[in-house]
Amino acid sequence: MAAAVRSQVISLYRMMLTESKKFPSYNYRTYALRRVRDAFRANGALEDPRAVERLVVEGQQTLALIKRQVSIGRMYATQKSVVDD
Amino acid sequence: LIKKNNTCVCANLFRSKPSQRHQASPDLNKIKLIKRHELEIDELRPLYMDFQATTPMDPRVLDAMLPYQVNYYGNPHSKTHAFGWESESAMETARRQVADLIGADPREIIFTSGATESNNMAIKGVARFYKTKKRHVITTQTEHKCVLDSCRILASEGFSITYLPVQANGIVDLELLEASIRPDTSLLSVMTINNEIGVKQPMKEIGQICRSKGVFLHTDAAQAVGKIPINVTDMKVDLMSISGHKIYGPKGVGALYVRRRPRVRLEPLQSGGGQERGLRSGTVPTPLAVGLGAACSIAQQEMEYDHQRVSMLANRLVQKITSELPDVIMNGDAEQRYAGCVNLSFAYVEGESLLMALKDVALSSGSACTSASLEPSYVLRAIGTDEDLAHSSIRFGIGRFTTEAEVDYTAEKCITQVSRLREMSPLWEMVQEGIDLKSIKWTQH
């Protein structure tokens, strides 16, 4: 993977994790963190630049989705879960 | 507690004379109790382990639905303006997403208000359409209440219904099924995955039998769609019910798959403007349909990942519980099952008291639609569970959003509470002493 693309992917990954940590709901938060991490890990060996580009675009759309859903979660927040630290 | 002018009423009670304050007045105790109760109300939410009753909406599903609740509010059946066209386009996209998940053609999907309506439509509709020549319908004893009740209504209309028994592992006997098909059988209805014990029926074999005998096969796949791979052509299924809120979609929407080749005819239940091919009139709720479509498309993407995770978590739960507690029975076949539905019976413990003891875990002791009555579940009775074990069964539901921490917490709480309840149980004491409970002659006092 070209260095520019690689740094773009890493910064996308970091942004997605940062936003996912903001979910007020324990279940959504843990799912988002886990799913983002596992998805990036699974696609880590991908070489084809077009496939990588497609996934990056998808990642950016998902990042926007996470931000919207975090705001909605905050608007309608409730008490913490029993297992939440 | 009524609050006047934003100050607590009890503030007035504190304006007592200095000499009086040293005595613990009854008013002060009452205030303390009230304050403690108020703090308790703001308590932590229990963790959710009841994924068979319903599932939380996936954030991606909510995100897909919201534009249609806010700005794109047109009626999908309005043919004359952009609001109608964009709404219709969204509805058709959703239809294709549902069809792709089960290997069907989009023209074979009818949107309904849920799996209950789909089951009613399929069973009553097919039976009534073919009633002049065919008067027999077959189903199983472990079906969902809506299927059993629809069959009961048909029986009162003069149809003859066969309720097939299931074996002790919850699976139908294929030879018995084949033997019960008569020349005047129009429909056979078997659910793919049972909502109470998680057992998976051999749908391919049943489909083969029905196709060879010329009988329509309907399956209630509400618990199966999106969780295990389903293909209506491989399963030779003619009608299939789908529920939105079991696959992380919205409540209030479902679908019915109706095969076109060979054609299945149904008498519609709901009359009106002829929407959904005349089979289900009424405006299709675009936001809900979009939600169902999104849920199906996400389920298709995530099926492998979710399946591995749910199986791992279910194993973890069962291993933890059975390694610490003796006399725990899993209801339903151990192999032919969906991992995420674990139904355990804890001998010598009463189910309701265990549920109350586990009050910070959301669990169920049977299906939601029958939990109001005091009778033990008819599904457990059908698989031959003893009366007392049927009363002690708990259903653990594991899903996409369950975490290891939640499973560990549930297992630990369960072990502690079952042990505590067993300590209090005279039956358990007798069993520990080696007395066979079945040999006891109980007398009246």
TrEMBL record, chain A:
Family of this protein: Belongs to the complex I LYR family.
Gene Ontology cellular component list: L-cysteine desulfurase complex; mitochondrion
Complex 1 LYR protein domain sequence ranges: 8-64
InterPro entries cross-referenced by the UniProt entry: Complex1_LYR_dom, Complex1_LYR_LYRM4, ISC_assembly_LYR
Descriptive protein name: Complex 1 LYR protein domain-containing protein
Highest taxon, organism lineage: Eukaryota
Pfam families: Complex1_LYR
GO biological process terms held by the UniProt record: iron-sulfur cluster assembly
From TrEMBL, chain B:
Alphabetic keyword roster: Iron, Iron-sulfur, Metal-binding, Molybdenum cofactor biosynthesis, Pyridoxal phosphate, Transferase
GO cellular component terms listed in the entry, alphabetical order: mitochondrial [2Fe-2S] assembly complex; nucleus
Pfam families tied to this protein: Aminotran_5
Aminotransferase class V domain mapped to chain residues: 48-409
InterPro entries on file: Aminotrans_V_dom, Aminotrans_V_PyrdxlP_BS, Cys_deSase_IscS, Cysteine_dSase, PyrdxlP-dep_Trfase, PyrdxlP-dep_Trfase_major, PyrdxlP-dep_Trfase_small
Enzyme type, top EC level: transferase
GO biological process: [2Fe-2S] cluster assembly; [4Fe-4S] cluster assembly; Mo-molybdopterin cofactor biosynthetic process
Gene Ontology terms, MF aspect: cysteine desulfurase activity; iron-sulfur cluster binding; metal ion binding; pyridoxal phosphate binding
Its EC number(s): 2.8.1.7
Recorded catalytic activity of this chain's protein: L-cysteinyl-[cysteine desulfurase] + L-cysteine = S-sulfanyl-L-cysteinyl-[cysteine desulfurase] + L-alanine
Cofactor(s) needed by this chain: pyridoxal 5'-phosphate
Binding partners and assembly: Homodimer. Component of the mitochondrial core iron-sulfur cluster (ISC) complex composed of NFS1, LYRM4, NDUFAB1, ISCU, FXN, and FDX2; this complex is a heterohexamer containing two copies of each monomer. Component of cyteine desulfurase complex composed of NFS1, LYRM4 and NDUFAB1; this complex contributes to the activation of cysteine desulfurase activity and NFS1 stabilization. Interacts (homodimer form) with ISCU (D-state); each monomer interacts with the C-terminal regions of each NFS1 monomer. Interacts with HSPA9. Interacts (via homodimer form) with FDX2.
Family listed: Belongs to the class-V pyridoxal-phosphate-dependent aminotransferase family. NifS/IscS subfamily.
Entry protein name: Cysteine desulfurase
Species this protein is from: Gasterosteus aculeatus aculeatus
Lineage: Eukaryota, Metazoa, Chordata, Craniata, Vertebrata
